[in-house]
UniProtKB/TrEMBL annotation:
SUPFAM superfamilies registered for this protein in UniProt: S-adenosyl-L-methionine-dependent methyltransferases, Winged helix' DNA-binding domain
GO function term, MF aspect, one: DNA-binding transcription factor activity
Gene Ontology CC annotation, any one: protein-DNA complex
Biological processes annotated in GO: methylation
InterPro entries: LysR_HTH_N, Methyltransf_11, SAM-dependent_MTases_sf, WH-like_DNA-bd_sf, WH_DNA-bd_sf
Source organism of this protein record: Fulvivirga imtechensis AK7
Protein name: Methyltransferase type 11
Family, as annotated: Belongs to the LysR transcriptional regulatory family.
Record has Transcription as a keyword: yes
Keywords for this protein: DNA-binding, Methyltransferase, Transcription, Transcription regulation, Transferase
Residues annotated as domain HTH lysR-type: 2-59
């Protein structure tokens, strides 16, 4: 069979004019290159070059192969660029981005509400669990530690986040997690591979979450469960109330919507999972309530998780003219006021569990 390496070989020879230079260009030894050339000529049943005065000349068949191969390589290059661009666009559309501040925020968020979200994140020993959209591994650390008898494959679209996640898991001496680059809309797994699926704060960021759920259902075994945890910014209320702070939160909602996401997805988990064909769907709201009596939560949830999230979208919201500078800065200031004496803050996450029927 003609392989891409054969096309590259002929293309390189056409460009540099000698086998020696072509081998250097392709980082091959000259004997490896001669071997490949022989392989190609045997397959084609004809010679590709002949030599005159130590110079290589293409045979008529070789010319045809060279020209058609060049066009194929160009097409492949364009395809590669288009595919990479799709991935880049997906990464760009992730509203929170991949900064070190966001890594810190995800870790603060996960550890602060770990008990609230994960008191029941328990699966049987021996289970193979897919975690989709694991990010920097903030939830991975918690669920894999809590389920030492299960095995996890944690996937994300961001190579950078996966590298961070994998380093953290190694440093924690956790050895029941494997990380893999994958898109939740096109998972590189066979049908019915996983006993359970876990998704946290992913569906709120993707357009067409119903298609992601279909793909997740495909790789889930019959009688397996899916667990989905998402937020809902409409559940945010606080004291002292502030119209400006509410506007700042609304800016995040609008921006997320413009990027294809849905910041109000929490309330929709029941219909979404049911419509995707999961059965016995059960949703439990998990409310965070913070006041002065929990100073640690004031810092870790109101400041480092929620307000940090609004601060994180400030520049993009301003550049897209979703909100004015005065409003977003005033909104952030007012959110901080809820952390001063007498302030309170409420937010509700939604955790849904559904089953795949036999
Ligand atoms: C808010 S973060 C949540 C990370 C983690 N689950 C947590 O709770 O800390 C969302 C993650 O989803 C990933 N993501 C977005 N679209 C994705 C897709 N189509 N396939 C896989 N991961 C995706 C992003 O790269 C990001 O790491």
């Amino acid at each position: 069979m003609i392989e891409i390496r054969h096309l590259k070989l002929i293309d390189a020879v056409a460009k540099v004019g000698s086998l020696k230079k072509a081998a250097e260009k392709l980082f091959l030894t000259q004997s490896a290159l001669s071997h490949q050339l022989k392989e190609l000529e045997t397959h084609l049943g004809t010679q590709v070059f002949y030599r005159i005065n130590n110079q290589l000349h293409f045979t008529p068949a070789g010319k045809e192969f060279r020209d058609a191969g060049k066009a194929i390589l160009e097409q492949l290059g364009q395809l590669e660029n288009r595919v990479q661009q799709i991935n880049q666009d997906r990464l760009k559309s992730y509203i929170h981005g991949y900064s070190s501040e966001e890594t810190q925020r995800l870790n603060d968020q996960a550890s602060t509400i770990s008990e609230l979200l994960h008191r029941d994140s328990k699966w049987e020993d021996g289970a193979l669990i897919l975690e989709a959209g694991c990010g920097v591994g903030a939830q991975t650390q918690i669920i894999s530690h809590k389920n030492p008898g299960s095995n996890f494959i944690s996937v994300d679209l961001s190579e950078k986040s996966l590298a961070q996640a994998s380093q953290v898991i190694r440093e924690m001496n956790i050895n029941n997690v494997e990380f893999q680059l994958a898109d939740v809309f096109d998972l590189p797994f066979n049908d019915n591979t996983f006993d359970h699926i876990f998704v946290c704060f992913l569906l709120e960021h993707v357009s067409k979450p119903e298609l992601a759920l279909q793909e997740l259902k495909r790789v889930l075994k019959a009688e397996g469960t899916i667990t989905v945890i998402e937020g809902d910014h409409g559940s945010t209320y606080f004291y002292p109330d502030s119209k400006t702070a509410r506007k700042a939160i609304q800016a995040q909602v609008t921006l997320q919507k413009q990027n294809g996401g849905n910041a109000y997805i929490g309330r929709q988990l029941y219909p979404m999972l049911s419509d995707a064909g999961f059965s016995n769907v059960a949703v439990s709201p998990r409310q965070v309530y913070v006041d002065d009596s929990k100073p640690e939560m004031v810092d870790r949830f109101i400041k480092n998780t929620f307000t940090a999230m609004i601060k994180g979208i400030k520049d993009e919201a301003l550049s897209k003219r979703i909100i004015s500078r005065d409003e977003i800065e005033g909104g952030i200031r007012d959110l901080y006021k809820t952390t001063e004496g007498g302030g309170t803050f409420c937010y509700t996450f939604f955790k849904a569990i559904g089953y795949k029927e036999r």
